[in-house]
Amino acid sequence: MPAVSIDTTFSRPWATAGVDRATLGWAVVLLFAAGCIGLSGHLPWLASYPETLTLPISDWINRAEDVVVATTKPFFRAIAWLLDHPMSWVRDLLHWLPWPVLMFVGGAVSWRAGGWKLTVFTVLSLGYMLVIGYWEESMNSLSLVAISVPLAVLIGFILGVWAFASRAAERTISPTLDVLQTVPAFAYLLPILILFGFGPVVGLIASVLYSFAPMVRNTLVGLKNVAPDIIDSGLMSGANRRQLFWRVRVPTALRQLLLGINQTTMASLSMVIVASIIGGTSDIGWEVLSTMRKAQFGESLLAGIVIALMAMILDRVTNGLATRHADEEDRSTWYQRNRFWVYVAAGSVAIAVIGRFVPVLVAYPGNWVVSPAGPMNDFITWFVVNFQPAIKEIKRVFLFYAMLPLKIGLDQTVTPFTWGFAWSGYFTAGSVACLLLVAWAGLRRFGTNAAVAIAVAGSMFLFGVTEISWLAFLAVLLMTSWRLGGIRLAIGVFAGLVFLLVSSAWDKTMLSFWLCGIAVVISFLFGSSLGIWAAHNDHVSRIMRPVNDTLQTMPLFVILIPIVMVFKIGEFTALLAIMAYSYVPAFRYAEHGLKNVPHDVVEAARSMGCTPRQLLWRVKLPLALPNIMLGLNQTIMYAIAMLVIAALVGTNGLGQQVYVGLSKGDVGIGLVAGAGMAIIAMMADRMCQAAQRKLEEGKAA
Questions:
Q1: Fewer beta carbons under 10 A from the terminal one: N or C of the chain?
Q2: Rg for the chain (alpha carbons), in Å?
Q3: What global pTM score does this model have?
């Protein structure tokens, strides 16, 4: 049956004639890892990396930072002074303009970008900010975005052009962007504070550092993708080098550049709360942070919705401007090219003049403000009180039967108090034997990769992620990277792991790996399952889209509030918070991949008699697997990004070390922990990309 042949082709695309060598290699590695685990109780240096072989990397960073600050502090303080003026001007302008003017301008731009539906959404969203009482705070946040986005776009465009013009520059810029996008923002807040001083400008600098990377990448991609025949046409028309760039390459790549502006805007807005922590400005981010510290769920959620609405407006407006078609009308004169904006300016002036005679149009009356925060807090309290037994049971079962075994192993978790019986050596021997039998069955049925996955996952559950010998973990990870991406990937992974070992960050890394690993597996399975459902049901897709938009644009701090109020502080709460944020990319990529399976392939499979189940498992999923793997990649990235936020609710690991460095004023500790998280993210990214390439090669074959 053709559908069966499709399934065989894509289920194990790298199962080639070399599978016997791979099986032998994995057998050697797994036996070595088993020996390390078995001997770690007798050889302490196998159980934990020797302290004598570590290096004082954090101390070196602190000493280097002292030298840099002593020599460059006046220069950076001057930059802060210069940037403070335009930021203050924009903030004062937004506060001076009457609120109807801003709503009119927002609605007009939205109509230009996306039609009447986007206009209605924008006006209603701005009305929410006004009625809920957060208008001034929203304008303060908008002033930050209004300055940080142009700066980030300018810096990103310049660096993208440089990377396009120079291969050497691209090789330097690309890994730098990886580091900036994977190191938690909190890790580099302390050096920024020391260099630029405390105040709103520090938040501006942090926002620019975080948000310029998407512009660099989109500029590079856009300029590289200009078709050669377009370049040839420009050269034949007599264009010199400068004209060829500004009049041929840039206009052709304009859509990609505008998409870069869209992503830069979203990244900048996502830094609003982080900027509030160090900026001390009374903006919407500070409202979220201050109400969260007071455990005021209603107030923090209402303020968080403001940021989510701002993000949705800016996302849809910038995306609409990037993808809209040019008007067909004649644009020969300046007025014809800009008449829409002339009308907008004239309308704004007219509303401002009318507002001088109608006080309510200048300052929104305070007694018109409506806040449902009280009832929301009462509802959460009622829910916790009435469902406390069920909540405690859910938490207990998941903690004792899943999280703790994966953390410290079954032999340490199984006790009469938790599981109802005591663990013994017979259980260890029996569990290992069962694991070997299941792995052997996986080898016979699905191949080497499945057997290895079963053996590794089972070993983690039996012995615990944090208790497994570092040398065993190193061997398995190196073999995995070599099998996926060859020697270059293996060398990169080895270098990253060595840094984690010699910097004394290994133990904290394993704690982060444990929590993040559980969250990624559950989020990926849950998100992909929902995505598969949504791909086949338009109602589910429509319902889930605003939910996913809200979860991705809602400040990460706000996601913690309801979970903390229901489940209290602890690792289970952190796990739920990570999952709530990181399942979204798995959902979206699974839905996108399945919806974009070629229609003719689906019709061919149906004409051959495939049932809906066969069509899904033997045709659609294999063809959508590269997209689904990209969803796994992004799920890992989102989970790692959430680790720092999850550290606020009682977790241990690299995320907590970032806060330790920030609270102690220790740049070294914070940067080492941040670098550790960046290393984990980059290793996961490269390995997922390598797996995706293998899947695409199998698909092409």
A1: C
A2: 28
A3: 0.77
Return the number of other C-beta atoms located less than 10 Å from residue 198's C-beta.
13
Q: How far apart are CA 665 and CA 670, in angstroms?
A: 9
Residue located via tokens 């403000």: 369
Could you give the C-alpha distances from 275 to 149, 183, 511, in angstroms and in order? 14, 16, 28
| Predicted local confidence at residue 494, as pLDDT | 95
Q: pLDDT-derived band of residue 328, with 50, 70 and 90 as boundaries?
A: very low
Mean pLDDT of the chain: 82
Sign of the alpha-carbon dihedral angle for 425, 426, 431, 436? positive
The gap from C-alpha 412 to its chain's centroid, in whole angstroms, comes to: 34
DSSP states along 501-546 = HHTT-HHHHHHHHHHHHHHHHHHHHHHHHHHHHHHH-HHHHHHHHH
Decide: helix, strand or coil at residue 280. Answer: coil
Distance from the first to the final alpha carbon of the chain: 18
Q: How far apart are CA 544 and CA 539, in angstroms?
A: 9
The string of pLDDT tens digits covering residues 415-468 is: 888 787 888 888 888 988 998 899 899 888 888 888 888 999 898 988 889 888
Please provide the size of the chain in residues: 701
pLDDT, tens only, 14-26: 444 444 677 888 9
Residues in contact with 639: Cβ distance below 8 Å, sequence separation at least 6, in sequence order: 516, 519, 520, 523, 578, 581, 582
4 pLDDT more than 50: no
Say which residues have a Cβ less than 8 Å from residue 648's Cβ, sequence separation at least 6: 557, 560, 659
